Amino acid sequence: MKLVFLGPPGAGKGTIAALAKEHYQIPHISTGDLFRAHIKEHTPLGLEVEAILGRGDLVPDSVTVEMVRQRLGEPDAADGFILDGFPRTIAQADALKGMSGLDGVINFVLDDEVIIARLSGRRMCKSTGRIYHILYNPPKREGFDDETGEPLIQRADDQIEAIHNRLEVYQRQTFPLIDYYRERNLLIDVDASGSPDEIFALVKEVLAP
Ligand code: AP5
To answer: Is 5's C-beta closer than 6 angstroms to any atom of ligand 1?
Structure first.
């Protein structure tokens, strides 16, 4: 299964991708996670993109497309993948067309008000990338990862100013992909307002043969 998870920041793409990855046994490829891994490792790419991610702007298409091209070329992505956060512009979608076919584009639909509540309460474990929410999915011990015991962090782009910028960037640059994929009969809208289990049940239903 070759899938794209599309939707505004904080719609729950990463949360549902973690469930779908196990269920369909395909890799979860998040461009945000790939960039954050480069930042953590202080690679040249990480140094180039750190400030861009902190502001909530988009990394230039050429850089992002090349990173995804390399990742999709790895053996585990040959038979299927979940692309989370890519493509985010029409140019990236055109580039993806040249790299791989797709079975579907899941569009996670959610109001801005809920998005802001989800993002401002998100916490994550820096080394594993595991995602929590202070109210909706709290860790067993407040402020610490359930498995590694490491202190949880708040992403720089989950500060309120960066959240507003990310929502504007999404409207301007990513929202047009909804029509792009609808016109190609690939778009599947999914209501992302329920619990993760409810949303994943909807995803499985729409992807069932
Ligand atoms: P990226 O990491 O992709 O950020 P994003 O798209 O803004 O998505 P998020 O990770 O913030 O949200 P999500 O939808 O995965 O929600 P989550 O499951 O975490 O990108 C970061 C940056 O990298 C970009 O701003 C850009 O700079 C750069 N970048 C990445 N891709 C790029 C590209 N293609 N081109 C150029 N630049 C690129 O959930 C959010 C919170 O809600 C969590 O706390 C979670 O616990 C909670 N939650 C989730 N689901 C539910 C639910 N159903 N009910 C209650 N709470 C829930």
So the answer is: no
